């Protein structure tokens, strides 16, 4: 679990950098990297990040409960 987390953070950071660079470049002719679509992608990414954080918290709570049950 601890080894996976930095990889996930790195993956998210590189994805965000790609999106940000595409936005800075502002390719009007390339519809794939258009600003409007990038805004949508950014919203999706924020939602995904929030979802991941909630999911990780959920996993941690379950792990804590399991540990407390095992101790008893």
Which structural class do the helices and strands define? mainly alpha
Based on DSSP secondary structure assignment, what is the total number of beta strands? 0
Strand content: under 5%
The percentage helix is over 70%
Which segments are poorly predicted (pLDDT under 50) over 5 or more consecutive residues? none
Radius of gyration: 18 Å
Give the biggest sheet: none
User: End-to-end span in angstroms?
Assistant: 24 Å
In N-to-C order, the SSE pattern is: HH
Mass-distribution shape: elongated
Lay out the secondary structure.
Layout: H1 4-25, H2 35-71
Helix pairs in contact: 1-2
Q: If you had to describe this structure to a student in words, what would you say it looks like?
A:
The chain is mostly helical. The protein has a domain at 36-72. Helix content is 82%, strand content 0%.
